[in-house]
């Protein structure tokens, strides 16, 4: 009887994990590496940019290094995935240029979310980071 209960429980657990989101991609170093994402939403709100403005972005490169544009300042550091599947950039460094108040607002949210452990959801088109205080959605914009 115990074996049957364990088998049913395990089957239910695996089925629940497999059906969380049909479009989601397994989050691994390999699935994140060598991609560039552009920020499109902060806390569910669409971000719009003036024409010819560089958009905040995150790029994961060789050796799982991370770099990008947080708002008007560039950042870099070492990307990490923990055992719980959360993402962060360890020892993130950021330049210190003068920025407009709107750029600084986005920059602070990006820096806070990227440098802290965040739940990560990956689809073929988007990367979502759900941090303690903010949620960032980025669209895949690989270099051509």
From TrEMBL:
Signal peptide interval: 1-18
Q: Supply the alphabetized keyword list.
A: Signal
Instruction: Using the record's annotation, list all stretches that form the DUF306 domain.
Output: 30-139
On whether Magnesium is a keyword of this UniProt record, the answer is no
> What's the protein called, per UniProt?
META domain-containing protein
